[in-house]
Amino acid sequence: MSAKIINGKQIASDIRAELKTTVENLKAKGITPGLGVILVGADPASISYVTAKEKACAEIGIYSDDNRLPAETSEKDLLALVNKMNSDPKINGILVQLPLPKHIDEQKVLLAIDPVKDVDGFHPVSVGKMVTGQKAFLPCTPHAVLQLLHRSGIKTEGAEVVIVGRSNIVGKPLAVMLMQKSPTANATVTVCHTRTKDIASHTKRADIVIAAAGKPNTITADMIKEGAVVIDVGINRVDDATKKSGYRLIGDIDFESVSKVASLITPVPGGVGPMTITMLLYNTVESAKSANNII
Known about the structure:
The chain is α/β, with parallel strands linked by helices. It is 39% helix and 16% strand.
């Protein structure tokens, strides 16, 4: 068999069209959702990612307050900017791009963000609400995975799901989200990691396998049961002399072999990536609605 491709670009485009309509309706009421973006330093990957987010904001009509700071910016000055955004009514969401320079305490900065503007979903208040099933900003990449599954018609209720990776950004929150009492969750979830003795013994029985390990070829065809759904969250750079950049992007899955066994699969690039930025936009719009008591 040959797996059907889950087109993250198309699904992201569909959601952005929905968001654009919502933003237009909010603007008709005098409300413009605003995202405050802070980038410290000149990390190429971070610059590329932030630029893509700002372009996406413009695409659907969100106001973007772009702050690009030199790498030597002090922790004190960064915290002062975060606090300024906390009190700015034009800003509904605050994004501090990670990683930060080593002289700045990332955790201290993330804790300084007002939870009502925590559109990345990283603040402990947001995480606590998510775990207990309360309304909260969901972390963007795990939420992207849920939306890909839901909008592709993949049933999670009662499904055996195996997540490979236990990071605070993807693996842990995604496991919590998939086990919630919800028609788009209700899955039985297993989390594998670097200390799991036999990852294949778990993935072979899974209806849905989600790879978020940060290592190429973590998942190969012999680890997947026939007809399983495979979601690849990984983004890895590998050398490729045929490319102008000198590299190409691949995921955590051996796409060529796994796509011959799975029923549906996400590509890299073009799968989870476009959806992650889209869910940041979604959270920002939801924050603007909440700030103006719009359900």
